[in-house]
Specification:
The complex is a heterodimer of chains A (about 260) and B (about 160).
Chain A (H helix, E strand, L loop, with lengths): L1 H31 L7 H12 L3 H26 L5 H39 L2 H7 L4 H39 L4 H11 L2 H28 L5 H30 L4
Chain B lengths: L1 H30 L10 E8 L10 E4 L2 E11 L6 E8 L10 E6 L6 E6 L17 E2 L1 E3 L4 H13 L1
Parallel strand pairs in B: 1-7, 2-6, 5-8
Antiparallel strand pairs in B: 1-4, 2-3, 3-4, 5-6
Classes of the chains: A mainly alpha (about 260), B alpha/beta (about 160).
């Protein structure tokens, strides 16, 4: 009994320690951003790796999501004779939910896991310590360019995801199901607003990007520098990332839904 | 070799940003349909309705089905306890004022509500020939509420 309590207490203290350390890491990351001088090529290289190289998976999955939504929508709306509402259904569900959330989940699997593994390996091969010995702060040199390029990259990917998915859904229901394209766009334009739908989607995506990058970089920097430790940290990045994205999505939606 | 790779990274990032910019333009203009990029000259008129049904701000205002403006705001008139709707109309079209009439209609059976204005008599020599800023449209017809209609039908059927 005593041992059980002691274990429980240890776990709680460990958890609180984790929260505190990750919060401190985040504050450090934000504050030291103003110290960041030069190295703009790093940011470019990271946007290339995190953003450009994710284009393939993002656009292809967006296309399929659009097609599936269109197919499901036709099947369901046909029963009510409400096929004219297909365009709004596709556009709103993608702009409000699917776009930000799915692009964030894909980004977490495609880019954030790689970041954790990369930084973990830098740590395991003592390169971060080498930077410290040269008087270079690894947070400034290694972490910050990755953080900001991710925060820039994910919203851009989200915009592309939404556009490709809507075009995919449009293509399917007009060219395959022979629905009227004028009706599709007219009803969509009536239902979608820039302020409430597109801008809120982009805000969601920025919040997800900050959360995902924070988790990925923290896990990479604080992993146990062994093969096993790096693999565990990578797993944690993806699992925690998905949980945080979906959880914060609920909160953000609850905040935004008042205006809809 | 290294230089070439750096150049490729620049172009790739450029391509990435240009693509997302184009996607954003597509979302704004094709999907959300921002119609008034620059402010058109408009004027406000008012109309009181006893029941606006599902009318929303930004709903279209039409004459003969052609869009001439939108609903700018909906408030509860504190004296009459009816809905005071502000209509923002384009200045380009003059609308005869005598006996003008505004109705709340529905697009199709399940569509959104909009306001249809039926212009009055053409009376260019009258005191107040055309609708102008700040006018109140006196004759209005409320939104059709399906429940009321069904209730009335049942009431009549019983008789």
């Amino acid at each position: 009994m005593n041992l059980l309590l002691r274990n429980l207490g240890f776990r709680v203290i460990q958890w609180l320690n984790f929260i505190g350390r990750s919060g401190y890491f985040f504050v450090q990351m934000v504050v030291k951003s103003s110290w960041y001088r030069g190295f703009t090529q790093d940011v470019y290289k990271q946007i290339y790796q995190l953003g450009f190289q994710s284009l393939g998976i993002i656009t292809v999955s967006a296309l399929f999501i659009g097609l599936v939504l269109s197919l499901q929508g036709i099947h369901t709306l046909e029963k009510f004779g409400a096929l004219s509402q297909l365009g709004p259904m596709i556009a709103l569900s993608i702009l409000r939910e699917m776009g930000p959330v799915i692009s964030a989940l894909l980004f977490s699997g495609r880019a954030c896991s790689a970041l954790t593994a990369e930084i973990g390996l830098l740590k395991a091969s003592d390169q971060l310590d080498a930077l410290k010995m040269m008087g270079i702060d690894p947070i400034v040199r290694v972490i910050i360019p990755r953080f900001w390029s991710g925060v820039i990259g994910l919203p851009l990917l989200n915009i592309l995801f939404c556009a490709v998915a809507i075009v995919g859904g449009y293509w399917y229901c007009t060219h395959q199901m022979m629905l009227d394209s004028g009706m599709f766009w007219a009803n969509t334009q009536n239902a979608v607003s820039w302020e409430l739908d597109i801008k809120n989607g982009i805000i969601k995506s920025i919040v997800f990007a900050v959360l995902l990058l924070w988790i990925a970089l923290y896990q990479g920097l604080n992993c146990t520098p062994t093969a096993n430790g790096i693999s565990k940290a990578t797993t944690r990045t993806v699992v925690l990332g998905a949980l945080c994205v979906l959880g914060s999505d609920f909160i953000l939606t609850a905040l935004m839904i008042g205006d809809w | 070799m290294l230089k070439q790779r750096q150049e490729w990274i620049y172009s790739a990032v450029g391509l990435f940003v240009v693509l997302s910019g184009l996607a954003l333009v597509f979302l704004i203009f094709q999907v959300s349909g921002v119609k008034y990029v620059h402010k058109m000259k408009t004027y406000d008129v008012y109309a009181n309705f006893n029941d606006i049904g599902g009318l929303r701000v930004h709903a279209p205002v039409t004459i003969s089905g052609v869009r001439i403006g939108e609903v700018a705001s909906i408030r509860l008139d504190p004296n009459a306890l009816s809905a005071k709707v502000t209509l923002r109309l384009e200045r380009s079209q003059q609308i005869p004022f005598d006996d003008i009439n505004a109705r709340i209609l529905t697009e199709g059976l399940l569509g959104a509500n909009y306001i249809s204005i039926i212009p009055g008599f053409d009376n260019p020599n009258g005191e107040h020939p055309f609708l102008s800023s700040g006018d109140m449209i006196a004759k209005t017809q409320d939104a059709m509420i399906l429940e009321n209609l069904i209730g009335q039908l049942l009431f009549n059927a019983k008789k």
